[in-house]
Structure formats: C-alpha cells, structure tokens
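lol forgot to send this yesterday, sorry. struct tokens for the thing we talked abt
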C-alpha cells in the first residue's frame, strides 16, 4: 500500500488552547479514511493544517512523499489535495454552471484566458460533473435556489473540477436529509472507486462513517485516541468514554 498522505507528530495551538497535539496519521492511495471525535476535539484544525490554511507549530505533513507543511492552500490544491467545508461555500446568486466554472482558477491563470472565456472542454467537464452528482437538470438555476443538500452536492462537484487526487471532506452529510445522505454517500463511493480519488472524511454521523470508511481515526482533546477498522473503533472503550464524557 502506497501512502498518499503522511501526518507525523503535528501540533497546533491557538494562544493557550492546544487544538492538536502530536497527531500522526497515514492515508493510503485509494482509501476512504474517517476522522471522528467529540466537538472541539481538533478535527477541523487538523484538516486546516493538512491543506495549508494555517502553519503548523511543529511536525511534518507529506503528500505523495513531498513535505507540504510550509506550503499554502493554492499550492497544495495544485498538487492535487483540497478540502470542503462544514458550511457550503457557493455563490448563491450565480448559476450552478458558473459556480463550477469559477472553481478552477489555477487552470486559467492568465488574464488573456479569463477574457477569452472558459474553453469548451471546461464547460463539458462542468456538465459531466453536474451530471455525476445528479444536478445536471438544475445547471442553469441559481445555486441559492438549491436545497442545502443539493448545495453540498454542488460544492462536491466544484471540488471535483480541480481533478483532485485527494479530497478532505468536513462533515459532508451535516444538515442533509436521510434520502439525500444516501445519494451523497453513493457519489462519494463512486468518486473513490471510479475516479480514483482518495478521501479523508470528518463525520459526526456514526452510521455514515462506519459504512463509508475503511479505517477510522478518533481524536479527543486534541490528541489521537484510537485508530482501526470501523468495528474496532466502535467497540473501543476509550472512544465510547470520550463520546459519553463529551455529551
Ligand atoms: N482559530 C482559532 N482560534 C482559537 N481557537 C481555535 C481556533 N480554531 C479552533 N480553535 C479551538 O481549538 C479546539 C479544536 O477545535 P476544532 O474546530 O479543530 O475541533 P473540531 O473537532 O473540528 O470540532 P467540531 O466537531 O465542533 O467542529 C477548540 O477548543 C477550538 O475552540
């Protein structure tokens, strides 16, 4: 198994708050790995450290073997790793298609190429990916008119426009109704199996993460508490205690 992401002893504090302390994890190419933990356990901070939203205090982050802990978000995105957010980041006044087209800035860097408009292949790719997430029929609607769950699917499709090798998804199913959750899970699995995208997923919905992930890391109080397959993590007494203690 070839590692695509290796996090070693990463720490990050905000003032006196230790959000991450000596966290190590590894994701292999083609895997779907989950990150769970009670509120405030440091999951989002870890994602931000991995994708370059803020510098880490110490430790190493390697993507495809290369050290990336000193790179920032756009550089890491160009290498093929990006994240989505708990709250969707779409432009509600723009159509779904336009949201898709503007989500690949690094592929159209020159002013000339922007003025010349987006190439036909980018339009085609946007339509294909909207079809992939089941939003093709809504491609000319304003994104703000979509339901929250559909907006999450749009955001997922927008991330796919960057042709990532790896995606970090922060609570992809939060706020989505159960019917759409199944649709989203199906898309995540297909992105993994058909498009070959490695996934690291923060998720509070235990049913979802236990079904989706091959391996799960559990954080508590900024530290790595447990790691293993879903069955092992679900039955780990430390994990059970962390959740009960956090309620
Ligand atoms: N920018 C920041 N400034 C100050 N403190 C922060 C900042 N970001 C996170 N924290 C603190 O770091 C700790 C970990 O927060 P983080 O958001 O990473 O946890 P989480 O596991 O993602 O939580 P949740 O499940 O509620 O989203 C918390 O105590 C939080 O208040």
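and heres what i got for the seq, position by position
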């Amino acid at each position: 198994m070839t590692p695509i992401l290796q996090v070693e002893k990463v720490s990050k504090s905000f003032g006196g708050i230790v959000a991450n302390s000596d966290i190590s994890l590894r994701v292999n190419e083609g895997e779907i790995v989950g990150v769970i933990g009670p509120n405030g356990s440091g999951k989002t901070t870890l994602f931000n450290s991995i994708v370059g939203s803020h510098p880490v205090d110490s430790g190493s982050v390697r993507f495809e073997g290369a050290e990336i802990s000193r790179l920032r978000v756009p550089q890491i995105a160009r290498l093929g790793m990006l994240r989505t957010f708990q709250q969707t980041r779409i432009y509600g006044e723009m159509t779904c298609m336009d949201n898709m087209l503007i989500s690949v800035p690094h592929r159209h860097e020159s002013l000339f190429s922007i003025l010349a408009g987006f190439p036909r292949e980018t339009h085609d790719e946007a339509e294909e990916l909207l079809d992939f997430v089941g939003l093709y029929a809504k491609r000319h609607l304003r994104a703000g008119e979509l339901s929250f769950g559909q907006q999450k699917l749009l955001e997922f499709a927008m991330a796919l426009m960057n042709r990532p090798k790896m995606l970090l998804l922060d609570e992809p199913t939060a706020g989505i109704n159960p019917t759409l959750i199944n649709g989203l899970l199906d898309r995540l699995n297909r992105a993994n199996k058909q498009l070959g995208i490695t996934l690291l997923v923060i998720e509070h919905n235990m049913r979802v993460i236990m079904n989706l992930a091959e391996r799960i890391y559990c954080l508590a109080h900024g530290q790595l508490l447990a790691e293993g397959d879903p069955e092992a993590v679900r039955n780990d007494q430390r994990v059970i205690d962390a959740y009960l203690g956090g309620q």
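The two ends are 37 Å apart (CA to CA). anyway ping me if u want another try
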